[in-house]
Specification:
Length: 633
């Protein structure tokens, strides 16, 4: 929060000050393993893909199968795909059937999925293009001893001709929707025709195949209220030829995100994507700690802001990491071929168990706010990119809205912004316009209430009309970035005699925001689940000199509450928060007792509720989250 020194908070490193970013380092260690997993899941297809029309496919490609080796209980197989046409193939898809008892167990150089005994392999990004005469091969391991049959490449026979005596089915009629409810609907369509008969239909939600059915209807469930989905259908005949897609149908489920009752209080926590690495903190910990039953909202941190757009923060942690049964919220392990894994899938399971919890995807943060100035130059394009990402069909049901954490508009954080006082308001206006009334739109904002400080730098009052609430970052006011001190509590509720900077406290921040026209019912008080500390300190009370930051588990100058609770118990309080001196180390942090006092104050001020950074700093039984829950009742 200090304007003379950047306020190091919430970096990818897993703790507020880190720029070394331990989880990024951990992520690179995982890279080769993740790449290997991806390759292993890229099943038997190296020269087939994308559904080219049957006539084109018949004249342009072949697929040849060879069993490379057989060890009794399993085998290694190989496909070779060749472009026999005169034009370049841009992609390919190979399909075949195995008899019951035979399956693919691992593969490389293609992406393979199965539906019963029917297997489909598609090119990966680097091998989808084949020039005339070029070929590609892939290998795979299998179980059982059966041979493939009914082979097709791009919808035609693998020998380069059409299916003998057969033609592909026609397109079925565009699906129509009925029985549309909050989380489910029913699709029906007119049947396709085929000279030999239609075997089944593949149902698609967006680009993802969600079911294969034999009839002409399908009941889809597990959807999100007030959300728009697009459906289409393709038919497959008895020779396993796939026909053209039906027309698409767009359906919006009923209901929508209902903001919490203003009479109720917001209890929001941040869940960090990097916490699944070195911190070993997963969505299931919210359940085992009892915290899930005591919160109303989760902010998932962070998505990145790059080139003026919302982008993925950590693809592996977000939606690719496989969870074992003992790590999973519902005790069910992930499979290699399921469409969504990672924390997103675990959050989906959490919402099923705790349907009252609203989840927002938070973008930016201390480390990733550098892209906001470019976003502010074209707010409409930024909002569209965020909407496209948050509402991606793979995880649209997980998120109930978006949170913007710009540190800081028209001021300095890790970098400085000169977009102007109106930029923040304009960005939120465009975001609300795109996300609409049925999605939550929130923002984390500065608590710097000093004269001419960060609250004065942007139009937070004007922007308030576009948000459901602000999360006011009333922590990190002081820390060991001022290496020689003076020691001071990083999250004072009020001012006190000797405070190093006027306006650096929660009460002044809330008061200034209200004076700028922000209603108390749109403000959440921030709580840090960590402490900040110095070493080389001789004075027990605040205001002492120091020689540098105190040692910490992940970085100097910062430590989780769950560690400090026993390693350096509180020895005093000041301005509504606690401090402790242990040897030559001096720490400040909140305890259940100081949180209780802050929650009483928040209710007296008519605030919407409270939020905290972040879940993994709490004890195994969630005592700080419980203090917020109890204090706001």
């Amino acid at each position: 929060m200090s304007r003379s020194s950047p306020r190091p908070r919430r970096t990818y490193g897993g703790s507020p000050l880190s720029t070394a970013s331990p989880p990024r380092t951990r992520r690179t260690r995982f890279f080769s393993r993740v790449a290997a997993i991806v390759a292993a899941l890229a099943l038997p297809v190296t020269g087939l893909v994308a559904l080219a029309g049957p006539a084109q496919a018949a004249a342009s490609a072949t697929a040849t199968y060879t069993k490379v080796s057989d060890w009794g209980s399993g085998f290694e197989g190989k496909w070779v795909v060749k472009n026999t046409g005169t034009t370049t193939l841009s992609s390919w898809t190979v399909e075949w059937d195995y008899p019951a008892g035979t399956s693919v167990t691992s593969a490389w150089d293609a992406t393979v999925t199965s539906s019963g005994t029917h297997w489909t392999a598609k090119n990966v990004g680097w091998n989808g293009t084949l020039a005339p005469g070029a070929s590609a091969s892939f290998g795979f391991n299998g179980a059982g001893g059966g041979a493939p049959g009914g082979c097709k490449i791009n919808g035609a026979s693998c020998d380069g001709g059409t299916q003998p005596g057969d033609t592909p089915p026609t397109a079925p009629g565009a699906p129509t929707a009925s029985n549309v409810a909050d989380t489910s609907l029913t699709l029906t369509w007119s049947p396709a025709t085929d000279d030999k008969g239609v075997k089944n239909y593949d149902v698609y939600r967006g680009s993802a195949k969600i079911a294969t059915v034999t009839g002409t209807s399908y009941a889809d469930s597990g959807l999100t209220k007030g959300t728009t989905y697009t459906y289409s259908v393709t038919a497959r005949d008895t020779a396993d030829q796939t026909g053209p897609s039906s027309g698409s149908t767009t359906v919006t489920t009923t209901g929508g995100v209902i903001p919490p009752d203003p009479g109720g209080k917001v209890k929001l926590g941040y869940f960090t994507d990097w916490g699944v690495y070195g911190r070993n903190y997963h969505v299931k910990n919210l359940v085992t700690s009892g915290t899930a039953a005591k919160i109303t909202h989760i902010n998932y941190a962070f998505g990145n802001v790059q080139n003026g757009q919302c982008t993925i923060g950590d693809a592996y942690a977000d939606y690719d990491k496989a969870y074992t049964a003992d790590q999973s919220v519902d005790g069910v392990a992930d499979t290699w071929d399921q469409p969504l894994r990672g924390s997103f899938n675990q959050l989906r399971k959490l919402k099923k168990a705790y349907p009252n919890i609203k989840i927002l995807w938070s973008f930016g943060g201390w480390t990733w706010s550098g892209g906001f100035p470019q976003a502010a130059a074209n707010p409409t394009a930024f909002a569209q990119s965020c909407y496209n990402l948050v509402e991606d069909p793979r995880w649209a049901d997980v998120f109930d809205g978006i949170d913007l954490d710009w540190e800081y508009p028209n001021a300095c954080g890790l970098s400085c912004d000169t977009s102007g006082a109106a930029a923040f308001k304009n960005l939120l206006q465009a975001t609300r316009a795109k996300f609409g009334a049925n999605n939550l739109v929130t923002a984390a904002i500065t608590a710097d209430a000093s004269d001419g400080g960060k609250i004065d730098a942007a139009d937070y009052g004007g922007a308030a009309q576009y948000v459901d609430f602000y999360n006011v970052m009333t922590y990190d006011f002081f820390g060991a970035w001022a290496a020689q001190g003076p020691t001071a509590p990083h999250s004072p509720l009020t001012s006190y005699a000797g405070i190093p900077q006027a306006g650096f406290n929660s009460a002044d921040a809330i008061s200034k925001l209200k004076a700028k026209g922000v209603a108390g019912a749109k403000l959440n008080l921030g709580i840090g689940f960590y402490g900040r500390g110095w070493t080389g300190v001789t004075q027990a009370a605040p205001g002492g000199t120091a020689t540098g930051p105190a040692p910490g588990t992940y970085e100097q100058g910062i430590e989780d509450y769950k560690v400090l609770k026993t390693s350096c118990p509180a020895t005093g309080t000041v301005a509504g928060t606690a401090y402790a001196k242990c040897g030559s180390n001096w720490w400040s942090y909140d305890t259940p007792a100081t949180i209780a006092g802050k929650m009483t104050w928040a209710k007296q001020q008519g605030l919407r509720g409270a939020f905290f950074w972040e879940f993994s700093g709490d004890t195994a039984n969630g005592e700080l989250a419980n203090a917020i829950h109890t204090g706001l009742q």
